[in-house]
């Protein structure tokens, strides 16, 4: 990159809406912001005498250069700002640290024979949506009850196109579905059941609740307490879904609204939301915000509204906030566009709505005092520990760490594991397994060389496809590269990794996780220096967790391959024992050793087995013992 001349670049700023990104000398994105005029907004950061908070002053001292992206409108800048904040998580932006999505109950009225399903996406279509709800378990219980009460189908067949294909499923045999897939019920008759289910979801649950309460009491009287508890849980789920607790005046206009209150402590904030739908309180949730300042509640509330409503599928008609936000009109326009109808952001100062705000604030205050210490401990052992590692070895951050390990038995079935930790937490969806192809014998260095070459070659290929528009970023499995690679070993493994990265023209820091004589982690090997840790240290504990997880994942994969090979070598080619009987034996006994220890009578009891087959298995296993 060419040398950045701050004064010259400030002069070039356009009087145009857009998004700006502040960078440190190490290219870390420190802050992302939007502006109706980039020229005016960005220049403010560098004007002397301009009043700024201590947090912004600290950020400015770290800025090495900035870049900006022009947009057609301030509304478009708002959307882009949200996307960039979510992608880069800049350290000086006020960040919503929770990533929650809420379940809806969806009645698929766009189908000839509708279903009732759980979804976390709300679309503008012909379907009917109920929610959002705060308990996925309650949603699933209620859907299950609806299917049993109103006998709606659970399959995803495209009807009537696929009508008559195959046989009726088990739900028909259980008399829980009238088999519309076979044409056993007319569309008109089925729709009556659908309407009854919709009435139930609309709150007409009196008869169902009465019936369930009676069954619960009867079960309790007959000392069937487990069954009584099941009925009790179903009743609780119905109350949760249909929102029996009314917190607004019954005579008032029933609208959908979110009530938002906030409590701030040091650099943490908790925001509580009450979800009111059709005048009923469906539940509440709280969210944690990081990087806030006690004297800037307007900025914190604005950041929350932007980040929360960018991710939630449902936008209510009213949003009640405890404090005014600076860009209220812009946010209203944005929310209205997302909802498809006018949305109002209100800051009530008195009356019933103000009391709701006070209630939300009280909840936020209670949560922040309960959770702040727990949050600090969790942050210290996760993202704090990751940053501690980064600071110790002198890199900007270690937000994403990848660790690798090799497992084999005398070179047989050699496998490698790749585990991923993001913000100091295991991200199991990104774990990967490698069955080695080119290495013969127990050669850990060559095994690691093959593993890393495959991983990063594949990653570079995916990145190229993304640049060319041939692959969506979220569809790739290897395109995200780590901030730090950790090898299960010292100098030798680190050198292997560095050589592979050099051949692929990649510059990624590599550490070796060094063990002591008892095979316990004692420190890191980085840039030809071994770095020791005190034993009671969060960074040390995180490194140990990463190393243990890489080892566990590799061992589990290796065991699964050994087990498959063992099943094949011992149980294959036994007379009268085909694939189904082999599968039945493994399902029944779980392990080869358990099969070996079983007598003929026990073997005969396995699914699909008879005495003749059991004798053949017993003879084969015990013959191999005698040999």
Polypeptide structure, described:
This protein folds into five domains: 88 residues, GIY-YIG endonuclease (3-Layer(aba) Sandwich), CATH 3.40.1440; 99 residues, no CATH class; 122 residues, Nucleotidyltransferase, domain 5, CATH 3.30.420; 176 residues, Nucleotidyltransferase, domain 5 (2-Layer Sandwich); 55 residues, Orthogonal Bundle (DNA polymerase, domain 1), CATH 1.10.150. A hairpin with a 2-residue loop joins strand 14 and strand 15. The longest helix is centred in the last third of the chain and has 34 residues. The radius of gyration is 31 Å and the shape is globular. The strands form four sheets. Strands 13, 14, 15, 16, 17, 18, 19 and 20 form an eight-stranded mixed beta sheet that branches. By secondary structure, it is an alpha+beta fold. 45% of the residues lie in helices and 19% in strands. About 1% of the residues have low confidence. Helix 5 packs across helix 9, helix 12 packs across helix 13 and helix 13 crosses helix 16. It has 20 helices and 20 strands.
């Amino acid at each position: 990159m060419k040398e950045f001349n701050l004064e010259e670049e400030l002069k070039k700023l356009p009087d145009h809406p857009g998004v700006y990104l502040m960078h440190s000398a190490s290219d870390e994105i420190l802050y992302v912001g939007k502006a109706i005029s980039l020229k005016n907004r960005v220049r403010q950061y560098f004007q002397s005498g301009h009043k700024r908070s201590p947090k912004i002053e600290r950020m400015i001292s770290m800025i090495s250069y900035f870049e900006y992206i022009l947009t057609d409108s301030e509304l478009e800048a708002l959307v882009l700002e949200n996307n960039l904040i979510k992608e880069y998580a800049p350290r000086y932006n006020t960040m919503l640290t929770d990533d929650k999505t809420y379940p809806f109950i969806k009645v698929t009225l766009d189908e000839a024979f509708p279903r009732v399903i759980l979804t976390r996406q709300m679309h503008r279509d012909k379907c009917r949506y109920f929610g959002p709800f705060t308990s996925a378990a309650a949603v699933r219980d209620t859907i299950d009850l609806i299917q049993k009460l109103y006998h709606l189908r659970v399959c995803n067949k495209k009807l009537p196109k696929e009508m008559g294909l195959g046989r009726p499923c088990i739900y028909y045999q259980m008399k829980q579905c009238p088999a519309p897939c076979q044409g056993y019920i007319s569309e008109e008759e089925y729709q009556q059941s659908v309407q009854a289910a919709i009435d139930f979801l609309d709150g007409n649950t009196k008869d169902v609740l009465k019936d369930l309460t009676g069954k619960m009491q009867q079960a309790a009287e007959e000392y069937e307490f487990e069954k009584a508890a099941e009925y009790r849980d179903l009743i609780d789920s119905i109350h949760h879904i249909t929102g029996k607790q009314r917190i607004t005046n019954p005579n008032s206009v029933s609208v959908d609204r979110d009530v938002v209150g906030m409590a701030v402590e040091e650099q943490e904030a908790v925001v509580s939301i009450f979800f009111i739908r059709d005048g009923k309180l469906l539940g509440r949730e709280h969210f944690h915000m990081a990087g806030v300042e006690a004297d800037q509640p307007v900025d914190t509330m604005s950041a929350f509204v932007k980040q929360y409503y960018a991710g939630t599928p449902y936008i209510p008609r009213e949003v009640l906030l405890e404090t005014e936000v600076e860009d209220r009109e812009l946010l209203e326009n944005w929310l209205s566009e997302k909802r498809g109808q006018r949305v109002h952001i209100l800051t009530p100062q008195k009356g019933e709505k103000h009391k709701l705000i006070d209630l939300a604030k009280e909840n936020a205050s209670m949560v922040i005092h309960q959770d702040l210490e727990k949050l600090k401990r969790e942050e210290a052992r996760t993202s704090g520990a990751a940053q501690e590692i980064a600071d110790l070895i002198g890199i900007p951050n270690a937000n994403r760490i990848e660790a690798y390990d090799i497992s084999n038995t005398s070179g047989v079935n050699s496998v490698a594991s790749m585990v991923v930790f993001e913000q100091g937490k295991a991200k199991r969806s990104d774990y990967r397994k490698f069955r080695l192809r080119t290495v013969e014998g127990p050669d850990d260095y060559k095994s690691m060389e093959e593993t890393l070459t495959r991983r990063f070659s594949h990653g570079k290929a995916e990145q190229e496809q993304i640049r060319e528009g041939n692959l969506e970023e979220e569809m790739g499995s290897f395109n995200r590269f780590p901030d730090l690679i950790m090898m299960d070993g010292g100098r030798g493994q680190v050198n292997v990794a560095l050589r592979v990265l050099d051949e692929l023209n990649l510059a990624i820091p590599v550490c070796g996780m060094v063990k002591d004589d008892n095979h316990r982690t004692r420190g890191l090997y980085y840039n030809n220096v071994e770095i020791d840790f005190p034993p009671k240290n969060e960074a040390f504990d995180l490194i140990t967790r990463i190393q243990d997880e890489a080892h566990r994942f590799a061992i589990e994969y290796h065991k699964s391959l050994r087990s498959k090979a063992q099943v094949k070598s011992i149980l294959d080619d036994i007379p009268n024992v085909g694939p189904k009987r082999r599968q039945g034996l493994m399902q029944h006994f779980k392990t080869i050793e358990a099969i070996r220890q079983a007598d003929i009578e026990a073997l005969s009891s396995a699914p699909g087995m008879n005495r003749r087959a059991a004798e053949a298995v017993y003879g084969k296993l015990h013959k191999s013992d005698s040999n």
